[in-house]
Amino acid sequence: MSKANLFYAQSGGVTSVINASACGVIETARDHKDRIGKVFAGRNGIVGALKEELIDTGKESASAIAALRHSPAGAFGSCRYKLKSFSENRREYERLMDVFRAHDIRYFLYNGGGDSQDTANKVSQLSIDMGFPITCIGVPKTVDNDLPVTDNCPGFGSVAKYVAVSIREAGLDVASMCESSTKVFVMEVMGRHAGWIAGAAGLATEREGDAPHIILFPEIAFDRVRFLRKVKSCVRKYGYCAIVVSEGAQNVDGSFLADAGGADAFGHVQLGGVAPFVANMIKSELGYKYHWAVADYLQRAARHIASATDVAQAYAVGKAAVEFALAGKNAVMPTIVRGKGKKYTWRIGEAKLSDVANVEKKMPRNYISRDGFHITERAREYFAPLIMGEDYPPFRKGMPRYAQLKRMLVAKKLKKWRAT
Question: Which residues are catalytic?
Answer without folding.
Answer: 144
